[in-house]
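Trying the structure run again after the queue cleared.
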Amino acid sequence: MSKTNPAMNWKQHFQSESSHIQVAGFVAVSEEECRQYFVRRVSTKIAESDGTEELRQHLIELETTGFDLGGLSGQIESSPRAKDWEIGEAFAEIVLEDEFEAMFPWPTGFDKRTRKASLPGPDLVGLQRHAAPRFVFGQVKSSSENRVPPQVVNSTDDCLRNQMSHLRNFPTDRQQLISWLLVRMRSTEWEDAFNEALQRYSDGDMWLVGVLVSGKRDPIEADLINICAEIGHHPGATEVRLIGFYLPFHKDEWVDIIYGRGAAL
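Done. Tokens:
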């Protein structure tokens, strides 16, 4: 395992299909692998989504080459620590990249953490499949609640069930997301993949994924399987999948692990 880019091994605990939706649950094999994933991969993803440290380092580099910026680098305010749900979203994004050929070239968390966020709806927006790119739109929920399923899955206004149903059945919102991607991918190395995904989208081919990042809970299929019918998916080119990732650390520990107090380096 690379020290700079550690991977995680997973054990699949359940897999099934209901109402034309694929459901699967994966358990982290190693506590230490998971810890290093948080410390190195997730923390880096959060920093990329923020941009503050990158700006500070850029200003310092300019000043060392002779630019007179009036001490601007010292005026950059540190961003607040990421919240546990933001850590869960970053974790899900990386795992989907590692295990499911997802690609998120623009950090969606950047828009969500600004004061006037412009990203509508889903937590994850990008492409999926390297050889035949299609759009991926995803929702992420994190929980360590001792309840099956956790309330974030089916019992709040913005629960995973409601968000996935909205994502599946409201094409106007998806159009906003595609426009959001176009602005960022046009005239970049991603433009060809975007155009391929757009062609497939016109035929109904896209990947909608709902993710539960579950800390210190037993893997139980009922966490996800019972919301399938209410999402309202019908057979066709669109693929809908619900995935649970079960981690050895309680959600309350995630912030400390990311910011050092829980890290074993």
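Residues 242 and 252 are 23 Å apart (CA to CA). Worth checking whether this holds up in the mutant runs.
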